[in-house]
Write a structure and sequence with these properties.
Layout lengths: L3 H6 L10 H6 L6 H4 L10 H6 L28 E5 L2 E5 L27 H12 L6 E5 L8 H12 L6 E6 L1 H4 L6 H7 L5 E7 L8 H12 L3 E7 L8 H13 L3 E6 L14 H11 L10 E5 L6 E3 L4 E5 L2 E5 L5 E4 L3
Parallel strand pairs: 2-3, 3-4, 4-5, 5-6, 6-7, 7-8
Antiparallel strand pairs: 1-2, 8-9, 10-11, 11-12
Helix pairs in contact: 6-8
Bound molecules: iron/sulfur cluster (SF4).
Length: 340
């Protein structure tokens, strides 16, 4: 489902007229697995909120920005983001199976986004990785790398296999929950074809995303030798209550997915209706302690606007009152949040 007309026909929105302007600005995409999860009778359905466009996306606040986490300031060659010494992002593709309404790269993904690396750009990206011996880990993100065919994924993995200093390969993906049928034997073979230790971060934000099909996909990945970690975004009206957040983290662990990142929502354009305050986020994360097992505790992180990297805002965010925080980056630099 890729157009407002599709959404109207499926009964996911009543009146598409106001949404055409949203769809022209930000890509729309909802898979059959997600459509099946949406409760059309609930005007506040957390699944619809994540994937069905809303007129609220046309509201832009002054602190929002096109590149909220500063990818472009750390991109030495097309497709590579080298923000920290020992790891790089490799963004081979800017297409996703779904288009999340809160996406931090919403200006880069979709049919009007940055596209897929050309063979020449991919050669240059791999050359960059090969010529920087300090790079220990390659993180494939995008877009969603699992939209690529197993053949193309395998080709990329075989190229990484030949780079001795790369020890870890990591994928970030929404596919296991939004299009679990893609996770077949050919896909798993391709993901592990580098022979390196391979992690896969499963992006899910609500426990209802753990359908029987999604659970089976995660089980296949685990059995196929992938180490699974989690990635979620703390989103107003989706998972910003203790009960939902606890069930989400327990759901990951039940599926052998180790909770890893709970992201504070980024300052992406048109996403203010999803943002919680850092103080509320800290209270929620503190509430998980004791309530659920130590296995289920995520790290609550903020990508500091401007490309300063992630900060663990359980500890590295100090309240100045009035909703303002001072956030410390990994190099000791201090930044105001929200940015001034
Ligand atoms: S799958 Fe990831 S990159 Fe794609 S729209 Fe959702 S959050 Fe953005």
């Amino acid at each position: 489902m890729k157009t407002v007309k599709d959404l109207v026909q499926a009964g996911l929105v009543n009146d598409g007229a106001g949404l055409e302007a949203v769809a022209q600005k930000y890509a729309v995409g909802i898979t059959p697995a997600v459509v099946a999860l949406i409760d059309r009778d609930d005007p506040n359905d957390p699944m619809a909120r994540q994937f069905v466009p809303s007129a609220a996306e046309l509201v832009q606040t002054p602190d929002e920005r096109v590149d909220p986490i500063g990818d472009l300031t750390h991109s030495p060659v097309e497709g590579i983001v080298h923000r920290y010494p020992d790891r790089v992002l490799l963004k081979a593709v800017h297409v996703c199976p779904v288009y999340c309404r809160f996406c931090f790269r919403r200006e880069m993904v979709g049919p009007q986004g940055l596209g897929t690396l050309t063979p020449g750009q991919m050669d240059a990206a791999v050359d960059y990785i090969a010529s920087h011996s300090e790079i220990w880990e390659v993180i494939l993100t995008g877009g969603d790398p699992l939209v690529l065919s197993p053949r193309r994924l395998r080709d990329m993995m075989v190229r990484l296999a030949g780079i001795e200093h790369i020890k870890i390969v990591r994928f970030h993906t929404r596919v296991p929950v939004v299009e679990p049928e893609r996770v077949d034997a050919a896909m798993i073979d391709a993901l592990t074809a580098s022979g390196k230790t391979t992690y896969l971060a499963v992006h899910a934000n609500h426990p209802r995303e753990f359908t029987p099909e999604a659970r089976a996909a995660m089980a296949r990945m685990h059995a196929g030798g992938l180490a699974l970690i989690s990635q979620s975004v703390l989103l107003k009206g989706v998972n910003d209550d203790l009960e939902t957040l606890a069930a989400l983290m327990q759901g990951f662990v039940e599926n052998r997915v180790q909770p890893y990142y709970l992201h504070h929502p980024d300052l992406a354009p048109g996403t203010s209706h999803f943002r919680v305050s850092i103080a509320d986020g800290q209270a929620l994360v503190a509430g998980l302690r004791g309530r659920i097992s130590g296995l289920c505790q995520p790290t609550y992180v903020l990508d500091i606007p401007g490309g300063h990297g992630k900060a663990d805002i359980r500890t590295a965010a100090i309240s100045g009152g009035d909703g303002c925080f001072t956030v410390r980056d990994w190099q000791g630099g201090e930044h105001a949040y929200p940015p001034k």
